[in-house]
Amino acid sequence: MARGLILLSSPTSLSANTLLSSFSKNPSTSFKLSPFSHLLHLQKPSSVSSPCCFTVCSSSSPSSQQCSIDMAKYRQVFSRRMDMAGIKPHHRIALGVSGGPDSIALCVLTAGWKTAGANSVGTDSSGFIDGLLAIIVDHGLRAESKDEANIVRNRVSQMGIRCEIANCDWPSGKPKQGHLQKAARDMRYQVFHDVCAKHQIGVLFIAHHADDQAELFILRLSRNSGVLGLAGTPFTSQIFPMHTHSYCEVPANGGVLLVRPLLEFSKEDMYKICRGGTEEWVEDPTNQNQLFTRNRIRRELNHLSSSFKSELQRVISACRKTRAYVDHVCHSLIHQAVVIKDLGYAVIDLQILCPSKIEDIYLLKFLSLVLQFVSQRQRQIRGSALKLLMDYLRTIQCKNCITAAGCYLCPDPGSKGSRVLVCCSVDIALPLKMEFSETCSFRQHEYHVANELEKIIEDEKSNSNHLVLDASDVHFLDANPESVLDEAKRLNIISEPTFNSILVLQKQETNRFRSKVGAISDLASKHEVENATSSGNSLQPGQCCYFMDRFMLTWKLNDKMDRDVLSDLVDYGMDLSGEARNFCCTSCVVGRDQVLEVRHMIESDWLYLAELSRYSPLENSANGNTKMMEKTASYLHYASVSAKKALVLLKSIPVAARRSLPVLINQQGKLICIPSVNFKHCPCLMVHVEYKPKIPLGGGHSSSRIPDGSGCSNCGKPLQPTMKLSTQFIDRSFLV
């Protein structure tokens, strides 16, 4: 939220009493001021310069009255975007709202779309539109942010949209300058996801628009991004939980569909929609602060011609088309060449993949998707690590091992280098990630939101099946980051003046970025270490643990053993009746009131199982064991039997994959259980483990489509449609 509050009046001077009186006479601009009247200031538009205030802008400004705003056009385009995304008015939708013109315009169009037409929805008993929730995130970084969030909530509520203010929790302390913007963004999307999951909402709308895409293009160009990064944010994508809560199982994979319906509208369109809807918005003066990269780029872009903006959008459109094509190719390659094991690792068949015959752009994206899945990182892997792995697959032919991007790659035993294992690396500097919740259920819940989200994605895909893209229609497949602009100029996508202007902007931001990157990296690394060290690893009975974002784990002690356990004991000639059974369950190494700890498997665990498997009750009895040892023989016998069976299973698991398996130990460090191979010390110890990665292979659903015949609001000219490939089996000939 922005700082403070300024109420913009007309250029004539007004007293405070006159202003308050005018509000009371105008319902569209009225709200309660008493709780924070100390924040109010009166200024003329020309004198707004305070860096610590909101500016509340009225839709009834003179400029808005001088022109007729065609709201029907905006509503028609918005409705067409909803059809493309497969979203219907009855779907439950959340809106990310800050109170600025972008998010208020999103509220105007979404509310109108929901309540108009043959499939419109009604209102609930409180007068709010059914199935629509605005989420206002209070980052809590400033004392006045709470009051500002309340102002926005009051305004949006008056539009008939139910609002919820979500407060950010910073368990490791508030982020410091240099890491602030990234940390705030990550926290904001985490809060969005958590609120959606709590309310069983599967769709989230965000108010990104065409000007945001232009700013992002220049920003990423200055960071040496390739064509995939220059494509900007997609029309639809999925976000996944960064933290685990008891309600985060609502969608089957924990994902929320993120939709950006305003990507074909400009910033000026945002103002027009707000005025056309007679709604107020707030302006954040910090958006004028030139210390922030986005603000500097925005200022420079605003000074450029409409033809420049039009040509820049055409470049972005071409990049999005390229990304859509590359994504389809990579998903096809994954389907053919990758096998996922339920112990958390992947196997790549190099004979099917043929990495030496695949162009760099496909292989790099392929590796990025596979490594993101195995490492369960929120963002895809980029940079030098990917190039190192690409060379590894092509030149070394997987005869050696390599660790990169949180993954450990090695030859699959017995494959003679024709297959490579991709396992999660535990040899990292940061502590292993674990998250907890007080309650946990491993039943497969069939929530309506999960089915609804799946149906939406299926509808979007079916809507694009008629669009087929040929490789000859895709640009920049061979272009490196330095040559994308050159290729765009050669193809007459951009003119010489536009080319030169982009280069100037790129050079300016590149120089600023290089001067700051060292200090920012140091701060970011420190912040990551602080966050990673904030979690413990103790697990109490009944508590649920999410181990390394892939294994759901819980345990408890039962007073009675189930039939399967008793059957195993009979098969191995073990008697646990009467007193021996009771002693086993109360005096074993687990203990009735123990708290267990979770870690990954280490080499000494294998050696312990091997030693335990050689335990013999008869041999110990012959050696004259004490009476206490005779009592403990029952549960040691069970542990020995369990160890023998576990060793058989472990031998079938590659060594590299074993290292990331979760194990339970007691507070003295003694191995208690390896649930993935069914080893446990006590037959009354009930442990459940489920391989449940947060982020699916491929990173979730994503679409970069631009609607056919839609126009760029900057120039009014048709944009090139970004067409989706057919779902037919991939023709590998173009990969050679």
From TrEMBL:
Record keywords, A-Z: ATP-binding, Hydrolase, Ligase, Nucleotide-binding, tRNA processing
PANTHER family listed in its UniProt record: TRNA(ILE)-LYSIDINE SYNTHASE-RELATED (PTHR43033), TRNA(ILE)-LYSIDINE SYNTHETASE (PTHR43033:SF5)
EC assignment: 6.3.4.19
HAMAP family documented for this protein: tRNA_Ile_lys_synt
Molecular function GO terms recorded: ATP binding; hydrolase activity; tRNA(Ile)-lysidine synthase activity
CDD domains: TilS_N
Residues in tRNA(Ile)-lysidine/2-thiocytidine synthase N-terminal domain copies: 93-300
Protein name: tRNA(Ile)-lysidine synthetase
Entry keyword Ligase: yes
Lineage: superkingdom: Eukaryota
Catalytic activity from the UniProt record: cytidine(34) in tRNA(Ile2) + L-lysine + ATP = lysidine(34) in tRNA(Ile2) + AMP + diphosphate + H(+)
UniProt cross-references to InterPro entries, sorted A to Z: Rossmann-like_a/b/a_fold, TilS/TtcA_N, tRNA_Ile_lys_synt, tRNA_Ile_lys_synt_N
GO biological process: tRNA processing
